[in-house]
Write a structure and sequence with these properties.
single chain, alpha+beta, Alpha-D-Glucose-1,6-Bisphosphate, Chain A, domain 3, TATA-Binding Protein, 3 domains, seven-stranded mixed sheet, six-stranded antiparallel sheet, 15 helices
Amino acid sequence: MTGNSLKFGTSGLRGLVTDLVGAASVNYTLAFVAYLKGKGELAEGGTLLVGRDLRDSSPAIAGAVVAAARHAGLNPVDCGELPTPALALESQRLGVPAVMVTGSHIPADRNGLKFYVAAGEIDKVDEAGILDALPHVDGAAVEVKPLASGESSALARYERRYEGFLGQNALAGLRIGVFQHSSVARDLLVRVLHALGADAVELGRSDIFVPVDTEAISLDNTRRAGVWTADLVLDAIVSTDGDADRPLIIDQCGNFVRGDIVGLLTARFLGADVVVTPVTSNSAIEASGAVARVIRTRVGSPYVIAAMRDAEGVVVGFEANGGVLLGSEARGLSPLPTRDALLPILAVLGLMRAEGKSMSELVAELPPRFGSSDRLEQVPPDRAAILMEQLRRDAAAYFAELGEVLEVSDVDGLRFTLANSEVIHYRASGNAPELRCYTEAATPERAEALLEWGLDAAERVIRQYGSTELSLRGLPRESHH
């Protein structure tokens, strides 16, 4: 029924386009609908919202989702090309389920489906329910037709949400570069910044899908950012990943601001009482004293959302990739418990204006805990498991040249804190055959050196157990707050 590459990861169903397009998209949609009907959360004739990003494969997959919904007796509404949080906001407003066709930041030969129930993102229990329903559906008779232009009111409502967030002309005087590439929010960002009074400069638009990963910025994009900020005299550069649920922010000097630091600055601006964030986020969050309580989770928005539900006060969640989830009302915004890129972009720019500081000054005021991260590609789960097993068996020998292991966390992967407070953290990606490595140290240079050591050491272990073509990705491997 489905290809082997299709699986639920930290953010929805992902896999190769060749496995997802056609029958698989139909069947997963039918399984989602059957699951909701079985729970009594969806009736015959109910509404299903459908959105998509700008990948070449997304219109065909969205067409299959729409056809499956119609076949199942629903009224599908094609919301067209829009950010994932915009679709989620509309789903929440109407109290109906939704499916977003996106592969987020992963390469163009892959794509995915993000499922939403009326209350928000599906959780791990929902994933299991969809998989249980999958063998019992058959979409062979479903006729898939090309989609026309989608209905745009959901995008317009999302835009209005943020045009009034900071106040009229709140960003007047700021000159902000918008790295457009193939982000589904590329035109939206420009419009909203203009509406708030900023001078928005359009940069790097692409007609070919660009897999921008906000946790691993390419050397080429880093160099371009340096040129843009210098030549165009920009106060910052902003962007998002493909479906606009992860922000990318670069300061006036061309330096990338890590997503977890973006999240912390956003929490400050929103007056958060509680921050919920995965174990991969920088420990400067606790050290800053900016919030009263910090809750750590596994990587993945379902885990962050689950922990947010039990928190009280102004609750802000975010991941190391910078996607912010709003768990409560804050500064006039209604809750939106799904990753959002526009909120942190505007919040950080708003904080700059409120405090009269540059982006780099805001970052420099934080405790000196610097992190760096990158990944080994083409590392299947069984190879990653070999490394993890060796670390569990004899971490002391593995880290001998770095020092004594003081603490180990297995909340997600294995996170090792050494006696000198330096951190090396390994975890297998939930979305792709990759092994991710995260480091923390007191200086950016040391964080970078630790990352180089961590990747090299992991690669040596994995290579011992078979020939695998491993490549390092996410250069330039610069360390940042």
